[in-house]
Amino acid sequence: MRKYITFILIFLILIWWATSAVSQWKAHALFNQGQSLNPNKPSLNHLTQTIALDPGNAQYHYQLAELYTRMMQESWKKGKWRLENGKWVFDPAPQTLDYALNALDSYRKTIDLNPTSSQYHLSLAWHYGALTQLSIVNRQLSMANGQDSRTLRPNDATTPKRSALCALPYASLAMSHFDAAISLAPTSSYAHRLYGLWAFNQLTANSYQLSNDSLLSAPCSMLLAVALQEYRRAIELEPSLAREALEGYFKFTQDYDQLKQILPQIPDAIYNLAIFLQDHNAWDQNKESFRKNMELAEDKSGYYKALARGYYNCKDYQRAISTLQEYLKIDPNDADIHFTLADWAFYGPRDRDLAFKEAQIALKLDPKNTFYRYWYCRWLGYTRNYENAIAECEKILQLDPGNKKAKEWLEECRKAQRTQ
Question: Cα-flanking dihedrals φ and ψ of residue 359, to 5°?
Answer without folding.
Answer: -65, -40
